[in-house]
Design brief:
The chain contains four helices and ten strands. By secondary structure, it is α+β, with helices and mostly antiparallel strands. It has a ten-stranded antiparallel beta sheet.
């Protein structure tokens, strides 16, 4: 009978060790899953209002209307919502972000900041361009690989002002 107890104890120890190994594997998989989630995936999964903090300390809030690699489009205000395009490189913090993630599809994965800015330039709408140094009001004229030209009205017509993406905080439609 002592051997029965000995082998029962051995079986219990092995079962316990197997359970600990499974729990460690599950924890490792969860950690790897979380580590593979990027900001774009979480932005796409957020269906409520959120706010992003910019390097100047200001906050821009709204519902996520679109997003792509390197940018998010927020819409806030009623009855006429104002849309704000924010490069994710200018985001210092986010409030209201869901814990869930939604991987971008093939189309969303190709919607870069350059393409988003080109779409705004093609729409020929008046915008407020916020930079690290100040604000510009005008229209997006040309979109380069790492900069955007803003046509700013002057007393004699317009003047082109080039803004490197590294300085860009947000682009807000003025209507």
């Amino acid at each position: 009978m002592r051997w029965d107890d000995l082998f029962a104890d051995l079986d219990a120890r092995l079962a316990h060790a197997e359970r600990l190994e499974r729990e460690a594997e599950v924890a490792d998989r969860q950690a790897r899953d979380v580590a593979s989630v990027d900001l774009l995936g979480r932005l796409l999964a957020t269906d409520g209002e959120l706010s992003v903090q910019l390097p100047d300390g200001s906050w821009v809030g709204g519902l996520v209307r679109a997003a792509g690699p390197g940018w998010v489009l927020l819409a806030a205000g009623a009855p006429a919502p104002r849309q704000v395009l924010v490069p994710t490189a200018a985001v210092c913090a986010v409030r209201g972000l869901t814990r869930r993630s939604s991987p971008p599809g093939a189309v969303v994965a190709r919607r870069t900041l350059v393409l988003a800015l080109r779409a705004l330039a093609g729409a020929d709408v008046r915008v407020l361009v916020r930079t690290r140094a100040g604000d510009l009001r005008g229209r997006l004229a040309r979109v380069g690989a790492d900069h955007v030209d803003v046509a700013v009205p002057t007393g004699r017509g317009t003047e082109g002002v080039t803004v490197p993406y590294a300085s860009l905080l947000s682009v807000t439609e003025l209507g």
